[in-house]
């Protein structure tokens, strides 16, 4: 785990923000708080506004109404780009790597806000890069060209670049996409460790509701650009909420052994009641 802790813990909260593409408001009056040491998962159907809300917190889409402030009082609108990049990093779904880079070189990009303006000095950089590679299992392929990676390996390189940035707030848009089972579990463990051991505040978009239930302290359910449920996994992951949001029956069960919540969208192929009736 990181030898040097990230910068002083600092949460961020958005209050009643609207976010638009052109004149089209797609996120309406959304509020979200990412507190130090907590993991907040954003869930909801395709197009419900999860990525847009996350990107608004990183100022990639400035809100057209409402406000976003950090726990120390700083306002998202007035921070310099460099100050913002030292506080918050985003693993986005949209990314293109410049050609000709190897894994280590791409991860080094994550250190840009820590370099001195002219000389490029960054004494903690090499350790941060090694740490990020170790956490994401990339050390053995550090010199491999990024262009020659599989989808899952490339996903881990982008995540490592975010980790190397050493921010106290981490925004992750579907970080487990493309990953095989082992790396899904390991990356989720890394995220949990960053929150528990280093006080990082994490906002993460997840489509896998069982993963969200397992990793998150709080969930936000979005539907049509609005937050329609918020709270603990038990509060949010209910049959009523999920069936309404996804437009398909979703059963929710709590494992009697470990107390974990499991969800199951029910279609014709896996509806035991239908099968029993037709047997
Ligand atoms: N670049 C864009 N220009 C215009 N509209 C956009 C753009 N990106 C997203 N939208 C629209 O904004 C709304 C919210 O999209 P967003 O990507 O935030 O949803 P999401 O919940 O993250 O979806 P998904 O689960 O499919 O990734 C959708 O109606 C989408 O069509």
UniProtKB/TrEMBL annotation:
Membrane-spanning intervals of the chain: none
Cited InterPro entries: AAA+_ATPase, ABC_transporter-like_ATP-bd, ABC_transporter-like_CS, P-loop_NTPase, Siderophore_ABC-ATPase
Keyword terms: ATP-binding, Cell membrane, Ion transport, Iron, Iron transport, Membrane, Nucleotide-binding, Transport
Residue ranges annotated for the ABC transporter domain, each copy included: 12-249
Compartmental location: Cell membrane
Gene3D superfamilies: P-loop containing nucleotide triphosphate hydrolases
Lipid bilayer topology: Peripheral membrane protein
GO cellular component term, pick one: plasma membrane
One Pfam family this sequence matches: ABC_tran
PROSITE patterns associated with the record: ABC_TRANSPORTER_1, ABC_TRANSPORTER_2
GO biological process entries: iron ion transport
One GO MF term attached to the UniProt entry: ATP binding
Protein name in the entry: Iron complex transport system ATP-binding protein
Annotated organism of origin: Actinophytocola algeriensis
Lineage: Bacteria, Bacillati, Actinomycetota, Actinomycetes, Pseudonocardiales
